[in-house]
Amino acid sequence: MKRIKETVKYGNPILQTLKSKKKQKTGFYSSMFAASHSFNLTDWGNLPIHIVLQIFQYLPLVDRARASSVCRRWNEVFHIPDLWRKFEFELNQPATSYLKSTHPDLIQQIIKRHANHLQYVSFKVDSSTESAEAACDILSQLVNCSIKTLGLISTAKPSFMDVSKAHFVSALTVVFINSKSLSSIKIEDTPVDDPSLKVLVANNSDTLKLLKMSSCPHVSPAGILCVADQCHGLRELALNYHLLSDELLLALSSEKHVNLEHLRIDVVSENPGQTEFHTIKKQSWDALIKHSPKVNIVMYFFLYEEEFDVFFREETPVTHLYFGRAVSKSMLGRIGLNCPRLIELVVCANGLQPLDDELIRIAERCKNLTAMGLGECEVTCRGFIEFVKMCGGRLTQLSIMEEVLIP
């Protein structure tokens, strides 16, 4: 009997195999538990730097700063240059804004340790002059920088215009001189002037691709012409109509110049009857289109009805038109006749005269029209149906107020 039991216990190969597998399985779970327990006891400070860096790149600045206090290793990662290529300085006054500002200590730390790492910099200021002056103070300290893009943004009224012109120009010139590879500059609603633009051209003519400087009253047509003459890589330009000239369009059309991609023109009048608007020759527009056939020409109009007389008397290659104030029927009629490249048209107000004929003419002649917006205007239902029949197949955006349609 004993021999039989021993045979059953030890001699059956199937039972031995099952027992062996059970031991292996138990051993596997034990080793997994041990590894997991060991991992839980791992010092987070020993994580590879490239992993911590990747995590930091997804964190907001405040959370990144808190994480940097975990250990010395994480603090070192916090100061790696790759994390400081792009930075937005927010400058707000508690009395005039509910938005938080970049802490002064952090600003000083950036200037001291990371000025030479900054490449994509923007300043966002509220409506107070103090915030704009603080932005200028920071700009003037960026002497060891290699900035590629610079943006000055006023979130409310253009507060940079309230800063002393000398103070602003001096601070901006520091960046223009020390950054030798500026490619994008947004300095709208600022007191930038012709001499500072010359400094920009002297140091960054080979790299400048985008320049937005609408509402810069201290810049003359000669100042912007200097930029176009020297910065042959310029692809995007935004300016006010008073800076636009035949000479500028011809400079942008020269053989040395790359194809222009985007031209934005703001046509603004604050005092009706006191601003005289010049005309641009058709030959100048033709030269630009021949040189840059795919350029988008965007025009924003903020005029009074009596000030539209000089516009669109001849064929104009505009692609996007926005009218922020009332526009006359005759003006819309000229658009239908002389704007064959038109892609988008937005009319905020027109008055109480139905626009049936004008819209139908635009539908007939503007074969590229794909977007239309009508605000305080009037169109008869019959006229609107006719308009939709003619260009509805190509319209991708159509926005009209309910009150626009009349019986």
UniProtKB/TrEMBL annotation:
InterPro entries: F-box-like_dom_sf, F-box_dom, LRR_dom_sf. Residues 41-87 form the F-box domain. GO terms for biological process: regulation of circadian rhythm; rhythmic process. It comes from Micrurus corallinus. Pathway: Protein modification; protein ubiquitination. The keyword Cytoplasm applies. Keywords: Biological rhythms, Cytoplasm, Leucine-rich repeat, Nucleus, Repeat, Ubl conjugation pathway. Pfam families: F-box-like. One of its GO terms (cellular component) is mitochondrion. This is F-box domain-containing protein. The lineage of its organism: Eukaryota, Metazoa, Chordata, Craniata, Vertebrata. It is found in: Cytoplasm; Nucleus.
